[in-house]
Inverse folding.
């Protein structure tokens, strides 16, 4: 019997971490998913760590560049 990892889809309100830089947000930045766009391929995220100013807090990242933080 082979074991398989269970992959969970990223959902609205999940806390996620960027695995790569996206715009002004560095890799490792964390925030909550506000909305999923493009059939779930892109997430609108409000970055809360580190603190970013103004509109830099909102980024649009491909879900492939995110991981869910438990």
């Amino acid at each position: 019997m082979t074991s398989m990892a269970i992959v969970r889809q990223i959902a609205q309100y999940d806390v996620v971490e960027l695995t790569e830089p996206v715009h002004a947000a560095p890799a490792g930045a964390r925030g909550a998913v506000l909305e999923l766009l493009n059939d779930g391929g892109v997430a609108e995220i409000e970055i809360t760590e580190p603190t970013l100013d103004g509109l830099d807090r909102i980024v649009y990242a491909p879900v492939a560049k995110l991981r869910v933080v438990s």
Q: What stands out?
A: The radius of gyration is 13 Å. The chain has a mean pLDDT of 90. The first strand starts at residue 15 and ends at 18.
